[in-house]
Amino acid sequence: MTGVHGALTTNRVTTIRNAGGGIAGMIDTAIAAEDTPARIQVSRAAEAVANASARDIGRATGTVAGNVALTVAPGAALSKASALRTLRLVRPRITYAPPQIGWVKEVVRSEKPWKAYNDSAIGSRAGRAPTLMRTMADGSKRPVKFDGIQGDYVIDRKWSVRDMPRARAQSLRRSEVLAQHRLIGIWEVPTPAQRTKALTLLKKMNVTNIKVKVAKP
Predict the structure, then answer these.
(1) Each residue of 102-118: pLDDT tens digit?
(2) DSSP summary character for residue 99
């Protein structure tokens, strides 16, 4: 990186465009020529540009050219340094294991329409319900049942949405277990009117990781 400062103090600055492009180019060249990690090169490049005086940059062409170079060239150099500084701040993307979907025997039996509606969800299995394990405050785990699975989404079907204590508690349980597994849930309801009720309830409970859509029977 010493080559950057050397070039800054020996190369003649002839035009504003050359000044901007030249310094930016020198930083590129110096970085490409070294095996030093980018986070170290950024600080060196910024220091080299910052320490170059008007006299250093423009002594071959006069004070005016030097002042122009310092006015314009740091912008080009800064754009390079800023881009590289971003690399320093970037963290490796965290990857998570796929959700561990369990299946439990479905013991609820009914001849009513809601049962057939729930059992027909996408990804459902006859006589079994998909589950996610919810970690409790004391470290114990409890299963939370859903009705189906579609890709990375888990589906919970609601034949009728009611703003009752049991429904509110259930929505919070669903939201908590989804958050623990970094998933998004989908409530499927049979009519637009039920969708409106579902959205109102979720908003009231401040649940943001469950979406609602109409799925006709």
Answers:
(1) 999 988 888 899 999 99
(2) P
